[in-house]
Structures are given as C-alpha cells and as structure tokens.
Amino acid sequence: MRILAGVDEAGLGPILGPLVVGGAALAGPEGADPWTALRPLVARERKEKGKVRVADSKKVHQGPHGLRALEETALAFWACRHGDLPATLGDWLGQLGVDLAALARCPWYEDLSQPLVHVADDGFVRLHGERLARGLREHGIAMLDLTARPVDVEEWNALIAATDNKSKAHFHAYGEVLTRLLDAVPAGVDGHVVADRCGGRMHYGADLRRLRPGARVEVVCEEPAVSTYRVHGAGGGTTAVTFAERGEDRAFPTALASCLAKYLRERMVGCLNAWFQARVPGLQPTAGYYVDGHRWLEDLAPHLPTLAVPTQRLVRVR
Questions:
Q1: Do 268 and 112 touch, CB atoms closer than 8 A?
Q2: What is the pTM of this model?
C-alpha cells in the first residue's frame, strides 16, 4: 500500500473573501492512478457528460456552468468519502471543523442555512458519490481524507499583523493541512504528498522540520519549478513531499484539493455578495480579485457608514 496526497489553495491573490487550502489523501496499490481507475466516472481534460471533472480548479470553473461543475466534483467526492452530504452550507462548514461562532462575526456569514447542493442536481451528486466509492473499491483504492481550511479576512489580517509576511501567513493554513495529510500516512507506510508551490518560494525544509519535529527531513532537490523532500518517520515509513508549479496537473489528489478549495471559496464569496446585494440595490457581485475588488469597494463606499461593517473583517490588508 502507498499513500498519495495533495494540497492546493484558492484565493491567495484577492483582497476580499477567504483563502482556502484544500487537501486530499488516498491509499492504494503501488503505482495506482485514480485518474485511470475512475476514467468511466471522472474526466481530466474537459467536462464529459455523466462525469465529474478533476483538474486545475480554474479550468473546471470556466464557462457559464463553472460553479455547477465545481460543485459536482467537490460534493460527489465528499459523498464518496463520507457516504452522505450535510444538508446546509453551515452543516458542511461544521463538518470541516470551521469555528462558526468566529465566522459569524461577519454578518454575511450569520445565516448559512442555504442548501449545500446549490446549483447541481442533488440526485446526480449523491449517485455519483456512490459510484465513485464503488469504483475506488474495485481498484483497491481508499479515500483516507478530504478537507478544506478557510482563512477568512479577519484571521488573515491577524496573521499578517503577527508575521508581517504574506508568505508566512499563507503557509500557516497550508502547514495545517499538510500536517493533517502527513498524519494520515500510517506508520511504516510510504507516501507522496504533492503540494502546489506556495507563491515563489523554493525552500521548505525548515517548515517541514517545524511541522514534523520528530522526523528526519532530507532535501532531495530545490529548484525553481519543483522542490522535493523525504520525511522519514519514526515508524519506518518515508513520505516524499513535493512542492511544484502546476501541482494539480501532476497528481490526482492535488487537483481534487484544488477543486474543493475553490468550491468552498466560491460559496463563501457568494454569501458575501448576497448579503451586500440585499442591502445595496444594483450592486454588482465580485469575485474579490484586485481590480474588480476595488471596483466593488468603490461602489459600496457610500453605503458603508450605514452598514457599519468593520473593514478589518471585509478587506485584506495585504
């Protein structure tokens, strides 16, 4: 048996909405490729009828039905992993371990009672989850973990204040998810975690030693496009950890993590847009990225005194 895991994020660049780090881990025979095993159910290069797509989330999210495609992928695999789906967005965030009380300090997150299956067909998502679970079992592959860690604006700004470094703030959540996936590798078992590169960073050895203080961390290579390390655990197993550009193209769980992170971010930004649009007629929605995020803030500016929204919970400082 070998563990294959992946980490990716969505939302590092925007000025509004959360950064979300996703993670996925699977166990299977040496050399098993989930893309190949699930070919009747999963498309890689483009959306195919009757299939979900596992690829770079930016590609999955393209087009007028992009959110539906992301939802089908994220929630079908969530159902595959857990056997069912939470009823509401709030229930799902609770399953993910999100502190809902802290999140509710932002008024746009006070009501999270909207159905989790939002734009996709509920029956398709649930049936596909069952088929994915069966397809994995038939090839001796098990879904060990699937997670997403949102870092909303207030927490992000606090991390920036504490570190004065965007890269360190970014790796805070990245490291949490990476640690969780490393913990999913049983003692004596080998694994490989493929993480999308964190910005322009090339050196991760010190971070891995901090995350795994009881392990020996060996540097394999540190190059502009890819950095690889071997983490030797006390139980005898070795986990390779690769930080690579376009990690979602290299490994199935990294692509799945990308889709999960992007989907959760889209739903949370959707909450923000809905709350403000209900109070500011004619306000156009935003995805929160730099140029359009500033356009949205300019459109909102005349209404902010009335809304009394604390900007430290709305706008990132960096």
A1: no
A2: 0.97
